[in-house]
């Protein structure tokens, strides 16, 4: 199995797709890396030679990926919270940060729906009794 920057890349996928398994490398950057290393995009990850892998490793070191990138993102969010920015408070509350509506949708961040509304008297009594 091919291992780059601490990540096992799938062997049967094309190398341009396999590189996207690394946090911080998307399709566009993967193509740029392969272009720099002069490696064909159609090559499978298992078909790379040791020389090709060394080239890729060297080029990927120029980019901020994996742990360094995750750390930078986490620090940026902490800074927003610390200075009391609106975006920081949205991160803290677990709500959408970039102006999306929350009256409907936003389920990814807000979690599963909790229906509140009309109940039968028996059901309301059970809920009140459970609390």
Structural overview:
It is a single chain. The chain has about 130 residues and is mainly α. The protein has helices at about 15-20, 25-35, 50-60, 65-80, 85-95, 105-110, 120-130, and strands spanning about 1-5, 5-10. The chain folds into two domains: about 1-60, Helicase, Ruva Protein, domain 3 (Orthogonal Bundle); about 65-130, 30s ribosomal protein s13, domain 2 (Irregular). The protein is about 50% helix and about 5% strand. Strands 1-2 form a two-stranded antiparallel ribbon. Strand 1 and strand 2 form a beta hairpin. The longest helix is centred in the middle third of the chain and has 17 residues, at about 65-80. The radius of gyration is 23 Å and the shape is elongated. It starts with a strand and ends with a helix. The model has no long low-confidence stretch (mean pLDDT about 85).
Q: SSE layout and pairings?
A:
Elements: E1 2-4, E2 7-9, H1 15-18, H2 27-37, H3 50-60, H4 66-82, H5 86-93, H6 107-110, H7 121-130
Antiparallel strand pairs: 1-2
Helix pairs in contact: 2-3, 4-5
What brief labels describe this structure?
single chain; 131 residues; mainly alpha; Helicase, Ruva Protein, domain 3; 30s ribosomal protein s13, domain 2; two-stranded antiparallel ribbon; 7 helices; 50% helix; 5% strand; elongated
């Amino acid at each position: 199995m091919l291992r780059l920057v601490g990540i096992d890349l799938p062997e049967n996928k094309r190398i341009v797709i396999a590189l996207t398994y690394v946090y911080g490398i998307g399709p566009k950057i993967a193509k740029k890396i392969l272009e720099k290393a002069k490696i064909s995009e159609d090559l499978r990850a298992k078909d790379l030679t040791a020389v090709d892998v060394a080239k890729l490793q060297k080029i990927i070191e120029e980019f901020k990926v994996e742990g360094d990138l995750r750390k930078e993102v986490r620090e940026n969010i902490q800074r927003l919270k610390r200075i009391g920015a609106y975006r920081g408070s949205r991160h803290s509350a677990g709500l959408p940060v970039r102006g999306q509506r929350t009256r409907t949708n936003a389920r990814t961040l807000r979690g599963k729906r909790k229906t509140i509304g009309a109940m039968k008297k028996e059901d309301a009594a059970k809920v009140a009794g459970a609390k």
